[in-house]
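seq:
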Amino acid sequence: MRILLSGVLLGFSLLACTSQSKTPPPSDRSTSQDTVDVLDASQLDAFGFSSNDVEVEERTIKRNESLYLILDKLDFSPREIFSISNKAQKLVDLKSMRPGQRYHIYTESDTVSSPDRIVWQKNEMEYVVFDWQQDSLEVYKAVRPLYTETSVTSGTINNSLYQTISHNGGSPLLAQKMAKIFGWQVDFFSIRSGDSFKTLYENRYVDDEFYGVGDVLAAELRHRDKLFRAYYFSSGEIEGFFNEEGESVQRALLKAPFEYDHRISSPFSKNRMHPTLNRRRPHNGVDYAAPYGTPILSTGSGVITRAGYRGASGNMVQVKHNRTYQTAYLHLSKFAKGIRPGVHVDQGQVIGYVGSTGRSTGPHLHYEVKRNNRAINPLTMDLPSSTSIPDSMMAEFKEVKKAYEQQLDSQGGEAGEEGVITYNMSGR
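struct:
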């Protein structure tokens, strides 16, 4: 029995619940290629090998330790080491051996012979086996089983989504995934205390140990009394997150040019008092106060039309997205690698870094959006969906959406319901 804390995530009020859908582990595995008898699972170790009559020693790769040094310590001859290394490097990059990785040495009990097997554990899932069970070396890669279970977590945001989740012991990756899902509809830099969310997502496990957050399947976000919903759907060439009407939540432009929250220091205005010129003039963009060197993202795919120093604008990048929209990013400290006029960039690609070049009082990004060559407010612009589910797939989408909603609703009300931290018992 294991106590699963699925959702110690969100500040003032939380409701976190673990639900259904975990893949059961296999009841048995064969121990090696030459063994045909099926053993009881209790006789197998984490890599599926028999633990009967075998001594297993676990070691850790030390700094500057290579496969050659490991085998040398196990009394393999230089000729044998050369042969083993030559065979192994055809399958795996031996330079990926890193300090701190573990390896396991299998030797028959009560013998002083060379190892029958060595298992090099690259990470929690992947491992490489050196097997001498049939008097000749066999080298192969394998993966430990990855199990998933769905969880429902909801709660009220304290400050920012990222900070609230991180400060309460949850995975920041969950906040990052949600920000990407709703990044076209919600400006996450305007998230405020009292906004709330609810999400259905997968937790991943390897041998009963938590491995990480998996895919988000459905999510709700209540922001400034408006409820946003997104459902993952994949069928044929259609894949992504869609709202209740089957429209993609993806838009032509992201709401903001950053991955994480940064304060708006000066909003879009037709009559702003300029901080250095001390006179009123239009401010045709939004200023984000951010630490020096913060990565800046292109809010949409397009072609760079300008990338260089431009007087009061400092280092700037301008991107043309289509015949209608273009964006500009000013006061950069430097440009990302490969950013120059004529280069195509993808939505969400890093194009530069926050600085204070040109006419600037401190590190920040001035971000502009133009529609038909006229500046518009990036915070209030309304962009059409990039795509929609075709009528031929709507019935299938509605079934998927209904299943997700049942799982979300089975754990309580809609996003924002207040509750307490819930500890859920889950046996595996």
